[in-house]
TrEMBL record:
TM ranges: none
InterPro entries: HD/PDEase_dom, HD_GYP_dom
Alphabetical list of PANTHER family matching this protein: CYCLIC DI-GMP PHOSPHODIESTERASE PA4108 (PTHR43155:SF2), CYCLIC DI-GMP PHOSPHODIESTERASE PA4108-RELATED (PTHR43155)
Alphabetical list of SMART domains matching this protein: HDc
Organism for this UniProt entry: Chengkuizengella marina
Top-level taxon in the UniProt lineage: Bacteria
Protein name: HD-GYP domain-containing protein
Stored Pfam families: HD_5
Ranges for domain HD-GYP: 109-305
Length: 350
């Protein structure tokens, strides 16, 4: 018996208790065997989680992983994931239900205080869902960046929508190319690059989003020095929303598993983004991003790339990705020990 998010139900699982609607009506009775239709109904009625008897015993889950799976943010994230996946699948046969998109996103953003950019890692069952997962994480990170960069509050949710929809143009890319399990050739790369233009055309007539959201879809791969695509625009012509989404997009692309490439450490990703602030990304946004997500790291428990576990005891604000780490009483200065780096943020030491 286990409480699980609706998105984690397996066909054949059996309800241990009745499931009711928000108005108190019985949706399904105790003992119901859940199949695809029942799971779709639970999703449609916005049921977050249920208690089930598992058809098959699952592998034992660590206490830390269980706490991640059971927190409110992950439940809400999975609700947004299921909804946005359907929106993307139907975008060429139906309108974008923007009011519902915004409502779902606002519910997720209401839990933003639970979101740790360095450690949040919702389960991804299928690497073909990579772009959906990345879009949601980019949305959440973009919201925080808009807030941290002191944009007017009215812009925060619009920037978040920009992050959510920035890759919507991928829905017009050949799936065999988009989900290819090895590196793309030059012709396929050029095809992928068209997603920016496709995205702009999908969004350009959508009511309820501002021009910044549409331009973020078009410009999130542009670079400050004019070396990006699709138009080779320089920093003076790139919309602020696109500059914010670009930083979040690169970070989550680097720290997410893809078909052909494994994720890298978030700390190494930050170092790469720092390098890109010289001519490629907006320096002020990069500086704010790195500063904000590392400023409270003293006392954090981390795993190094040699599998040693330690606690961050000091960091230099000028070099926040390479702090001093206490491992079993030995202080390791990662700025001096360049062969070592933080592989994974584990938790904040209480």
């Amino acid at each position: 018996m286990k409480r699980v998010a609706v998105s984690h139900i397996q066909k054949g699982d059996q309800l241990v208790e009745d499931v009711t609607t928000k108005l108190g009506g019985i949706l399904f009775y105790k003992g119901t065997i859940l199949q695809e239709r029942e799971i779709e109904i639970l999703t449609a009625f916005l049921v977050n989680n249920v208690i089930v008897e598992m058809e098959q015993e699952e592998e034992e889950v660590s206490d830390e992983k269980l706490s991640i799976l059971n927190n409110d943010l992950t439940y809400e994230y999975q609700e947004v994931f299921s909804f946005i996946k359907k929106v993307f699948l139907n975008v060429h046969t139906d309108h974008i239900p923007l009011l519902e998109v915004r409502t779902k996103l606002e519910s997720l953003i209401s839990l933003i205080d639970q979101y740790n950019i360095l450690s949040f890692s919702p389960p991804m069952k299928d690497t073909k869902d990579y772009y959906i997962h990345k879009s949601i994480k980019v949305s959440m990170t973009s919201y925080l960046l808009a807030k941290w960069c002191d944009l007017p509050q009215k812009d925060w949710i619009q920037v978040s929508i920009s992050g959510l929809l920035h890759d919507i143009g991928n829905t017009k890319i050949d799936p065999e190319i988009l989900h290819k399990s090895w590196r793309l050739n030059s012709e396929e790369i050029q095809e992928i690059k068209k997603h920016t233009i496709h995205g702009y055309h999908i969004l350009k007539d959508v009511k309820g989003i501002n021009e910044g959201v549409k331009l973020a879809a078009l410009q999130h791969h542009e670079k400050s020095d004019g070396s990006g695509y699709p138009l080779g625009s320089d920093k003076n012509k790139i919309h602020l929303y696109a500059k914010i989404v670009a930083v979040a997009d690169i970070f989550h692309a680097m720290t997410s598993n893809k078909n052909y490439k494994e994720k890298i450490s978030p700390y190494l990703a930050l170092e790469e983004i720092q390098k890109l602030s010289f001519g490629k990304l907006e320096p002020s946004i990069v500086h704010t991003f790195i500063k904000k997500i590392t400023e409270f790291q003293s006392g954090s428990i981390v795993k190094l790339n040699n599998n040693m576990i330690g606690e961050i005891v000091f960091f230099d604000q000028n070099n926040p990705t390479r702090p001093w780490v206490n491992v079993d009483g030995q202080i390791i200065n990662l700025d001096q020990k360049r062969d070592l780096y933080i592989e994974q943020y584990l938790k904040k030491n209480k």
